[in-house]
């Protein structure tokens, strides 16, 4: 029998399988599970446990940014550039979100 915590997690957790990397994408704000207003600007973390990842990647997700007003050089997913698979996975839930890697090199 599953514990209630496994059926209804207290914090948002997703298991991710992006090309070449499997890991856990998680948040530390429980409001993401129940309060849509918490989905404006929030933080997610990704950890794969692979040797080349020395620390958890800290991502800032902004679902209401005006990405079309930014300079084209700032958009990692502009035409002609390859968008990191983890960003594409995040955008399946939050379409059009701007994702900041906060100094971490984006994984392809």
From TrEMBL:
Per the entry, what this protein does is: Hydrolase that can remove 'Lys-48'-linked conjugated ubiquitin from proteins.
The record's section on Pfam families has: MINDY-3_4_CD (PF13898)
Q: Which GO terms describe its molecular function?
A: cysteine-type deubiquitinase activity; K48-linked deubiquitinase activity
What name does UniProt use for this protein?
A: Ubiquitin carboxyl-terminal hydrolase MINDY
Organism this protein belongs to: Pachyramphus minor
The kind of enzyme this is, by top-level EC class, is hydrolase
Task: Supply one GO BP term.
Answer: proteolysis
Record domain Deubiquitinating enzyme MINDY-3/4 conserved: where: 6-103
**Reaction catalysed by this enzyme:** Thiol-dependent hydrolysis of ester, thioester, amide, peptide and isopeptide bonds formed by the C-terminal Gly of ubiquitin (a 76-residue protein attached to proteins as an intracellular targeting signal)
Q: What is its EC number?
A: 3.4.19.12
Its family remark reads:
Belongs to the MINDY deubiquitinase family. FAM188 subfamily.
Keyword Zinc-finger listed? The answer is no
């Amino acid at each position: 029998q599953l514990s209630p915590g496994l059926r209804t997690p207290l914090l948002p957790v997703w298991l991710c399988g992006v090309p070449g990397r499997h890991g856990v994408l998680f948040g530390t704000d429980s409001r993401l599970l129940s309060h849509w207003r918490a989905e404006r600007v929030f933080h997610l973390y990704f950890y794969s446990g692979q040797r080349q990842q020395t620390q958890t990647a800290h991502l800032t997700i902004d679902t209401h940014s005006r990405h079309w007003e930014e300079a084209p050089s700032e958009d990692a997913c502009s035409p002609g550039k390859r968008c990191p698979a983890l960003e594409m996975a995040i955008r399946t839930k939050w379409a059009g979100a701007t994702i900041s890697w906060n100094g971490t090199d984006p994984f392809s």
